Each structure stands twice: as C-alpha cells, then as structure tokens.
Amino acid sequence: MCQKENTVASYKNIVVLTGAGVSAESGVATFRENGGLWEQHRVEDVATPEAFARDPDMVQSFYNMRRAQLASVGPNAAHSALGLLEKKFDGHVTVVTQNVDNLHERGGSSTVIHMHGELTKVRCSYCRNVFEWQGDCTQASRCPGCFNQPALRPHIVWFGEMPFEMDRIESLLRACDLFISIGTSGSVYPAAGFVSLVRSIGHAHTIEVNLEPSDGASYFAETRHGKAGSLVPLLVDELLV
Ligand code: APR
Q: Are 233 and 81 in contact (CB under 8 A)?
C-alpha cells in the first residue's frame, strides 16, 4: 500500500501532474533530453507568439508534424493505469497535464486538464472559438465558425502566455491529499511550483515518479525513479488495494 508517514493511507482527492516523460514510452519526444524537441527546434522559432507573427508557416508546420506523429502512436501502460485509477478509485482523480497529446484520454482518463493546450485543437484569432482539428492546419485553413482566413492558430500555450485553468488547478492542489508528479523535469513554471504549494498546505502526501531525479525532487516526500510504464501501474495497484 502506498505509505503515508508509515500509516496505510485512505486518500480521497488525488491530483496527478504529468509531463512529457509519461508519453516517452509511446514514442513521443520529450523536450530536454538528448534528441529532445528543444534540441531540434529553437523555442523562439516555434513556440512563442512572436514566432507565429514572424513566420506562421514555420510554426504551423512544427505543430502539424507533432499532430501527425500523435496520430501514429498510442497510449502506454502508464496512461492506461491512470485511466484505471480514475475508474476504480473510491475518490476523485484529476490529471493535470503539461502535455498537449491526447494519450491520457485515449488511455481511459476523462478528467484531464491540459494546462498547456492540445495538439488536436486550433483556435480562431477572430471569433476566439476553439475547434477539434485533425490533419494539417495552415494559413490557408478557414475558420469553421466565422469563415475568416487566415485565422487559425494551434490551441497551444506558448512561452510568455498564461497556462489554462490555473484557478481550477490551484483549488485542486489545495484540496488534494495525494499529489503525484509523473515524467516532468520540474524545470518549467507554474507546474514546477505545484509540489511546493501542496507542501505548504501541509496535509497531502507527495510522490515523484520520474526516470531520474527532477529539479524539484527534494520537495517530494517520496520519489520513485524509473520508467513510468513500469512504475505507474505498480503505484496504481497500491492505491487500488
Ligand atoms: N518514464 C518516466 N520519466 C521519463 C521517461 C519515462 N519513460 N522518459 C523521460 N522521462 C523524464 C525525463 O527524465 C525528464 O525529467 O521525463 C522528463 C521530461 O522532461 P522535459 O523534457 O523537460 O518535459 P516536461 O517536464 O514535460 O517539460 C515541461 O516545458 O517546453 C515546455 O511546454 C513544454 O510542457 C512542456 C514543459
């Protein structure tokens, strides 16, 4: 059983923060490891509002490439274990993900907050509506709502923009009694600061599951280092005992 200060814990509100590492075993590139996305592309060229204003075609093609790759991969054992946890756990489970892939949903999770946006959605700069989008989005793509063109951008939070649903996320962090961080380097805020907030409230157990110690590893009461595809199913088994 997942130990909390040497007592068998009965958790009721679990928040799971995930990063690129939870999707790594599905074949989705992480950002800061060798060969990661930020080694192949400069953030300034593909992941800022200024980059989109300067060269929209380059930015659109960066996300078109990632959207196409997403269509060719599937959820791994970590995603499926979290989907099972949500279904079987006697309490609330919310996945707060930094990832823009849809692998948590395809792995069975339904309460998922995409704080950095979603690859399978685009947003219209005119009517501000958000639309599901498969395939390529270009400057020639017409908004399905207001028919303007060029109008559509990836529904992604770029550097310098505010992550989505932060008020809702903060409420969940303040109310949780178990905070699990999976597959994130802990190097990008505000997500990197979530564990400190949880610790400051003081009543939740905190677990890091990551291939190696993250930048925030020392803030966690418990750390489990290894592959998410192996460690997350074991952790979920403990929580469902
Ligand atoms: N299992 C568990 N952890 C893994 C695995 C795996 N199979 N493979 C890699 N990891 C870990 C790495 O050790 C690393 O600490 O996942 C982490 C990935 O870190 P990053 O590449 O920095 O990705 P992430 O933490 O999600 O980045 C946060 O930065 O650039 C922005 O918007 C982008 O959402 C992203 C944010």
A: yes
